Amino acid sequence: MRISARADYAVRAALQLAASREDVPLKAEAIADAQDIPHKFLESILNDMRRGGLVLSQRGGNGGYRLARPAESISIADVIRTVDGPLVSVRGVRPPELSYTGPAESLLPLWIALRSNVREILEGVSLADVASARLPAAVSALTDAPGAWANP
């Protein structure tokens, strides 16, 4: 699985909003500066997140962006899906829409299992979990596995 720059920036921007006071909107420039995200790219991402119902925008001198719901109720998967679409696809196609024959027939259940595991992790971690550095125990345990941090 590959996390796009767009998804990475969206999650980082959402985390910046999650860490801020809920009653004070953050300006896009402040988010961009805090997370080292190109401002124009961030504006596009924030617009997608607004259309997706994850953030609210407010115009004016005291304007900016804030989360549309509590950080505890927004998963990392919600953010990625909003800006990038499905969490797992093969050649841009969702796994259930694929079919294989012959020796490749077992690929479909493999892709489905991969999607299931990705969903389990990304849907099970909220913005609040990451912003507070309190990942769920099951996720933390995966990072302790031998070779988790190694690049084969």
Automatic annotation (TrEMBL):
InterPro entries: Tscrpt_reg_Rrf2, WH-like_DNA-bd_sf, WH_DNA-bd_sf. The keyword Lipid metabolism does not apply. Pfam families: Rrf2. The keyword Repressor does not apply. Keywords: DNA-binding. One of its GO terms (cellular component) is cytosol. One of its GO terms (molecular function) is DNA-binding transcription factor activity. This is Rrf2 family protein. It comes from Streptomyces griseomycini.
